[in-house]
Every structure is written in C-alpha cells, then in structure tokens.
Amino acid sequence: MIVAHLGVAVEVLFDDGERHQVRVKRSSGHVVGDSVLVRGEVLERRPRNTELRRRDGRGAVHLVGANLDVLGVVVAPRPLPPSGFVDRAIVAARAAGLQPFIIVNKEDLDGAAELTAELRALYGASLPVFSLSAKAGVGLDLLRQFMAEGHRGAFVGTTGVGKSSLLNALCPDLGLAVGELCEARGVGRHTTTVATLHSLAGGGELIDTPGFRDFGLVDIVVDELIVHFPGFEQAMMVRCRFRDCRHRAEPGCAVTALVEKGALAEGRYQAYLDLLSEIENAQDEARRREWKN
Description:
- By secondary structure, the chain is α/β, with parallel strands linked by helices.
- It is 27% helix and 23% strand.
- A 9-stranded mixed sheet has the order 3-2-1-14-15-11-8-9-10, sandwiched between helices.
C-alpha cells in the first residue's frame, strides 16, 4: 500500500512490514491509500474501492486519497471555513461512498461554542460532529473511539484549521510541523507538503493531506447533489410529484413545501440552490467542451 507520496517517489508499505521508496512520474496518478503490485521499479495499481477528488480554484482536479471509508471535515473558529466548503466536502464524500463527519477544532477559542452549536443544528441529525482542542488535548477520546471502529479516513480543511496539530495529538510520535495563522490575512500557512498515511494506536488509519482553501466538486451531477445534500434527508422520505424535480419552483415539490412550512431553514435551502447553480453551470460547460471536440 502506498503510505506516502513524495512527488517524484512514493513510499510503499509491504505486507511483511517493510517499507521502500519507488520512483514515479509526477503524473503517475498514484495516491496515498492505493494498493499496488511492485515489480522492480514498476507499480501496478489494483482497482480502488473508493477515491476522493476535489477541484481547486484554478479548475485543476486533485486526488485526495484512495480506498477510504470516512472523511473528516475539519473547521475552526479561526480561520472560519469559506462559504459552501463544508457542504461541498460532505456531498463529495457521500458521492464517493464515504461517510463524512465534522470536527470543530480549537474549541478553546472565542466563538468555538457558537460554531459547534451552529454546525450541530445544521448537520447533527445526519452525521457525527466532534468538538475538541488538538492543542490542549481535550475532547479527543470520542474521535479515537470512532476511528478505532476500523476506519481509514482523511482530514480535509482549509489551511490553518489545525489538521497537523490534530494528527500530532492522535499520533504523538509523528511530530508534524505546525504553522501559525497569518493574523493580517486571517488564514493559515501550509505545513503539510506531502500526503502520508498513519496508523492510530487504538485502531484506524488517517491520511494527512496538504492544506487547501478550495473544495470544488468533481463530476457531481444534479441527481447526486439532490440525494447527498445535507439537510434534505427528511425531504427524501417524501416523494416530489416529478421524479426529475430539482427543488426550485416545480409543483408538488417536497423540499419547497418543507421550506414553506418552516421545517427546512431558508439558509439551508439557499445553500442548496447555490450549489445547484454551480453544478448546472459545470455541466453546461462540460457539454460545451464536448461539442467543441
């Protein structure tokens, strides 16, 4: 299994516990979590069970990890997540067959209690929300118990939310570099530069990924958004009149009916509409590229 990607080489963990580096091209497509057959300096990748991808602000697609089953979305009161970041990560995880969960780090900072309460109100009915302080070592036990169920996952979050501090707290022998926030800009500095996989003492595995500020969706279609958008679970129990309902202004829409009754918050509905427009625009752009080709 590939346990580290170093750019021009990967580190492979063999079944007998040995570790070796194998040179690869930067464009090889290999990613941490991949199961591979090694023949000399040649890697043959076995089929992936799952893969998580994201699109950056320039439109480039990045593989976050392979053969995961959970995804931790890490947020903090400083820096706050960009608008739509949490929703995009949750939709991407669910569409890829992963179970998402949320971690509110830096619970000792001002505003953390309010952020946790807000996120639990928005997402707590459909996925786990953990509140902790990696730096102070507080609130980690529930997260350890969750990962010890045999999960392999990754943490995603914007730069500066404390993913490396969290991994250091869960794996004390790692000693990953930890950066400070740039106070003038209110954003963090990148400390993780390569992706690595680590085994937790109590069970479970985590991939440490470089920080990023964008989590654009990749190849997510409208039908997937409708099924996986957090907050629509109740609406999915009631059928809309039309099977292809996009929950805008169609008659007999179960979602808009919930909004009108106050059972679905206007803010949650607007967040869905924003993502819906984003995905529709991406699909239209993809069709235009196909026509040009």
